[in-house]
Amino acid sequence: MNTRVRRDFERIHGRAPEGVWAAPGRVNLIGEHTDYNDGFALPMALPQTTVLAAGRRDDGLLRVHSAQGDGRVTEFAVAELAPGGGGGWARYPAGVVWALRERGLAVGGADLHLDSSVPTGAGLSSSAALECAVAVAYDELYGLGLSRPELARVAQHAENAFAGVPCGVMDQMASLCCAEGGALYLDSRGLDVRQVPFDLTGHGLTLLVLDTRVKHDLADGAYAALRAGCERAARMLGLPALRDLDETELPGALADLPGELVPLVRHVVTENGRVGRAVERLAAGEPEALGPLLTAGHASLRDDYRVSCPETDLAVEAAVAAGALGARMTGGGFGGSVIALVPAERAASVGGAVTDAFAAAGFAPPAVLEAVPSAGARRIA
Ligand code: ADP
Ligand code: MG
Predict the structure, then answer these.
(1) Using CA atoms, how far apart are residues 144 and 60, in angstroms rounded to an integer?
(2) Which of 171, 187, 256, 356 is catalytic?
(3) Ligand 1 atom closest to Cα of 159?
């Protein structure tokens, strides 16, 4: 990948890059729709990465190209970058440069070429991988010295305010802060992180990713409405965020809320509880104990938060029926991917069972990948 990216960079930009960086996609093990409630999550980085070759320019131009883009080089004048300039893929890298300048950092132009093995639009965070690759490259090329959490905030701001996609900060934190062999225990308030060992092979386990290859349109609008509902509930309860409510206080709090907010609050609070229990189990060296937490998390997303869809529900159901220890949708929902924790010897049969169930339901076949806990964003050349 590294050699190809350099060669393509030279062909496209007519010069050598100054360096090559890589940022991974992610799956979130547990803790969905908790980040914007100041809560907890437990993502891990995938081996699939977005690789970026980059070199500074001194004429104030940002010129971006992607092997997965529209075939063209898109050019921006860095000083004139502003949100609202259209919907193409280039708004993600341009947004990162804009967000750095919004922080008052005097960054200039660059030539960029991207090439990614993260499936796009599959709920595996190809958008964050792209943003984070650009953020770490700019940090180094322009000597910014930003911390990983600061870079995550820059990337999130780019996605929210420049690309126009409402999202929390979990995807960017995962891509920037995960480490090989582990999951990342993320406290979204203050962006504190702890590495938690996640030894799948040592315990005879495989984590499958079942990409449903569907993305239903209501994703962004529904996300904004859910987020607003959570914020309204926190205000009515007199709390800074729903993270400040724990499971023991839940029954009393629910009694004070209007009916439409009850399932939202119940999901967020029980989901934060599941993250805590998952971290305890992993720290105790019992990764198989994640199984029931995954399946309970899916039920909460399906029945309370209502962000699953027929394809993700069927993938979870078929995986569990075929011997998975547990399964859940991962990412924002309305399509995307399901993760299934399976005994390694059953990985092939679980993948096959989900594929068969999709065929029987008239759905297009899912893509089946294996998730291996991998390194976060880094310079590779
Ligand atoms: P996800 O982050 O789950 O993959 P999103 O809808 O958030 O899904 O982001 C996908 C979008 O990100 C793509 O439609 C494209 O605009 C952009 N993108 C991601 N990776 C690349 C890439 N390698 N090249 C060009 N655009 C990309
Ligand atoms: Mg995304």
Answers:
(1) 17
(2) 171
(3) 7
157-169 pLDDT, tens digit each:
999 999 998 889 9
* Residue-wise DSSP of 151-197: HHHHHHHIIIIIS-----SHHHHHHHH--TTEEEEEETTTTEEEEEE
Q: What is the Å distance from ligand 2's center to 325 Cα?
A: 27
- The CATH topology of domain 198-371 is Alpha-Beta Plaits (3.30.70)
- Given a contact cutoff of 8 angstroms between Cβ atoms, the answer to whether 114 and 50 are in contact is yes
Q: What is the pLDDT of residues 249-297, one digit of tens each?
A: 999 999 999 999 999 999 999 999 999 999 999 999 999 999 999 999 9
DSSP 109-123: EEEEEEEE-SPTTSS
pLDDT of 372 over the 90 cut: yes
- pTM confidence score: 0.97
Report the largest interatomic distance among the alpha carbons of the chain, rounded to a whole angstrom: 65
Per-residue b or e along 70-97, where b marks 16 or more CB atoms closer than 10 Å to that residue's CB: eeebbebebeebebeeeeebbbbbbbbb
Question: Which candidate, 74, 70, 155, places its Cα nearest to that of 109?
Answer: 74
- The ligand 1 atom nearest the CA atom of 114: 23
Residues 371-375, mean pLDDT to the nearest whole number = 98
Alpha helices by DSSP H, 178-304: 219-236, 250-255, 262-283, 290-300
156 CA from centroid of ligand 1 (Å): 14
The amino acid that residue 40 corresponds to is: F
Q: Using CA atoms, how far apart are residues 127 and 120, in angstroms rounded to an integer?
A: 8
Domain-by-domain residue ranges, the chain?
2-196+375-379, 198-371
Write down the mean pLDDT value for the chain.
97
Residue 319's nearest CA partner among 300, 296, 340, 334 is 340
Tokens representing residue 91 in the block: 């708004």
| CATH among 3.40.430.10, 1.10.1140.10, 3.30.230.10, 3.40.50.300 for 2-196+375-379 | 3.30.230.10
Locate 297 and state its tokens. 């998390």
3-state helix, strand, coil in the chain (%, to 5): 45, 25, 30
